Amino acid sequence: MYDSGLGHPWLNPEGTFKVFCKADEGLCLAVRGGALFKDVRFSLHIKDEEGKPVFSLINKATGLAVQHSLGPFRPVKLVKFNPEDFDESVLWTESGHLGRDFGRIRMLHNFDMVFDALPHDKDGGGVRDGTTITLTEWAEGGTQSWKILYWSDEANKTCGGLFYEPTCRIYCKADESCSLTVRQGAVCLAPTDADDEYQHWIQEKRLGNRIRDLEGYPAFVLVNRVTGDAIECSPGQANPLKLKAYNPCYLDEFTLLSKGRDMGDGFGFIHMLRSISLNFSVFLVDKDHGGVRNDTKLMLSDWNLGLEDNLHFQWKIAPW
């Protein structure tokens, strides 16, 4: 089970957000002086056609949520936000990770209709204090390109505000001399080196307070401290592990992991939260001799269908 949104600061640890467009980064979305929350209670279960999770924007001072407008060039509206009521008219999606790049804020079921800061002076752009927010068709304009950042500068740093969290080392029992790292965008193993910053991972555990796998083990996300990317899993046998820009404001089911029972000395299976039969393993480059070596890449595999020797499936997450 999972719950989130207002009143649950574990999703938005630094509190409120500022939303601003590329046309003038000095002006922020407001209901005259209010800050915004992002409510993401439906983001794990409801996605747009591109797979992007939904969210709502709620003004902190008034409790009003930004609602779809009645049509092109009509101002967006404000409606009382009810966290217990499913209302598609207050659901939006981002075209990308708007904490990193400018992009579109769009209606859930109509990608063509996006946030636009309606210019007061169409010849010169004219974005200024009091500019009305409307929905218009995407035309790659600066008034249609937005960012959503925490008000706290610390929270906007790499790793979504987790930069100062203690880091951990991740390694498998088949070869404890190697640790998980990132090489040229790939998740792989390398000889353990504490000075290799890419071997430092942050285990984001806050989600485990609310989300557990079928066996009751808590969810977590593994975030690389240097890149700010999370390990992403793809369902299916022998699919390589990938990296994905970590956005702490969303629950992304493909980055949610859990670790099974302790099989001795802290080692155990690391698997997808949604499919605990698929576990971290290594691509064996030499099946006769185990094959773990420098740059060995990781994949998902069902250990029941894999090797007789399951040391390649047993992992430990330990503090540096």
Give Rg in angstroms.
Answer: 22 Å
Main-sheet strand order equals 6-7-8-9
Instruction: Note the main sheet.
Output: 4 strands, antiparallel
Number of H/I helices: 0
Order of helices and strands: EEEEEEEEEEEEEEEEEEEEEE
Strand content: 25-35%
C-alpha geometry:
elongated
Q: How widely separated are the two ends?
A: 32 Å
Task: Provide mean pLDDT, rounded.
Answer: 83
- Percent of residues in helices comes to under 10%
Number of strands: 22
Which oligomeric form is depicted?
single chain
Structural class computed from helices and strand pairing? mainly beta
Low-pLDDT stretches are 1-14
InterPro entries: Ricin_B-like_lectin_EULS3-like (IPR040249), Ricin_B-like_lectins (IPR035992)
What does this 3D model show about the protein?
The protein is an all-beta fold. The chain has no helices and 22 strands. Strands 6-7-8-9 form a four-stranded antiparallel β-sheet, with no helix packed on it. A hairpin with a 2-residue loop joins strand 12 (178-183) and strand 13 (186-191).
Task: Give a concise summary.
The protein is mostly beta strands and 320 residues long. 0% of the residues lie in helices and 30% in strands. The protein has strands spanning 17-21, 36-39, 56-59, 64-67, 77-80, 92-94, 105-107, 110-117, 133-137, 146-150, 168-172, 178-183, 186-191, 201-204, 221-224, 229-232, 242-245, 257-259, 270-272, 279-282, 298-301, 315-319.
